[in-house]
Structures are given as structure tokens and as C-alpha cells.
Recover the amino acids of this structure.
């Protein structure tokens, strides 16, 4: 049975789909990290070798500077347990495309499905994460030697 929740972030200059983790607080899932599940999470995240040529990796973050809170978006996951988690580096290309991923391994497959159902809200992705997505694209373009103004105009779930 699967019990993994994985998010792949792909940001383009004109549109963005993104997800992030909130800082620990009320309503957040419990964490009981299990070494095997931690290894599983780390083995799933996006790597440079998954992307092909032309991609560059951001330096690893040393803090939780990507964490956020958003008014009106506070899913209650306090009855769920994460047993492994990992986040990839952020990868970018000179044309402004960015990619990254995050993985959470839950105690059971039912918990993973419940967490996704409670957390995924398309309108909240657009409202809450657009500013972070816009900033990430601008920073990636700057590192590639280009300047850009970025506005997220749509967000949607892509089937895979």
C-alpha cells in the first residue's frame, strides 16, 4: 500500500503551480520519524539527474525560509502522523523554469490520502503561494543573468 504524499513544484514565468510546508503549529501533523521512512522520502525527491541538461541547483537552504502561513488556509492535520519527510533543492533554468519537490511519508496510506484531501485547495494555491512563486521565478531569472517581472495568472493540478 502506498502511504507517500509527494509534491512536485514546477514554476514557469507566466504560470505557476507550487506547494509548501507551514511552520509547526496548531493543526500540523504529528512527526514520528522512522529511519526507513526517512530514507524513502529522501530517495523520492527531485534530483538534478532527473532533469537533464541546462538546470542549475540553488544552494541548500539552512533555515525554514520557505515556510509560510496564509490567512484562511489552516487545514487540521493534527490527527495524522508523518514518519518521513524530505525536500529537494530548487532547480532553475535560464529561461525562468523552476522545479523542486517535497515528500511526506505518512503512517498509513489512509492518512496520506486524508492529508492530501484536506490540504489541496486550488484557490488557496493561487492566493497563498503566488507571491512566493513570483519571487522564486524572479530570483532564478536574476541568477541566470536576466531581469523579469512575474505575475502568476493561473494555478492548476496537472495529471500524471
Amino acid at each position: 500500500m502506498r502511504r507517500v504524499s509527494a509534491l512536485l513544484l514546477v514554476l514557469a514565468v507566466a504560470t505557476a503551480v507550487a506547494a509548501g510546508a507551514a511552520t509547526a503549529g496548531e493543526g500540523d501533523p504529528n512527526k514520528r520519524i522512522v529511519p526507513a521512512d526517512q530514507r524513502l522520502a529522501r530517495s523520492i525527491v527531485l534530483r538534478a539527474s532527473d532533469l537533464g541538461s541546462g538546470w542549475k541547483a540553488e544552494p541548500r537552504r539552512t533555515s525554514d525560509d520557505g515556510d509560510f502561513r496564509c490567512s484562511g488556509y489552516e487545514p487540521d492535520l493534527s490527527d495524522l502522523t508523518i514518519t518521513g519527510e524530505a525536500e529537494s533543492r530548487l532547480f532553475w533554468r535560464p529561461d525562468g523554469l523552476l522545479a523542486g519537490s517535497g515528500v511526506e511519508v505518512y503512517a498509513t496510506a489512509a492518512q496520506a490520502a486524508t492529508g492530501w484531501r484536506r490540504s489541496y485547495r486550488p484557490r488557496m494555491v493561487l492566493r497563498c503561494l503566488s507571491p512566493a512563486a513570483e519571487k522564486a521565478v524572479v530570483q532564478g531569472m536574476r541568477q541566470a543573468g536576466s531581469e523579469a517581472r512575474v505575475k502568476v495568472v493561473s494555478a492548476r493540478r496537472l495529471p500524471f
Remarks:
- The two ends are 19 Å apart (CA to CA).
- Strands lie at 4-11, 16-17, 30-31, 56-57, 81-87, 91-92, 98-106.
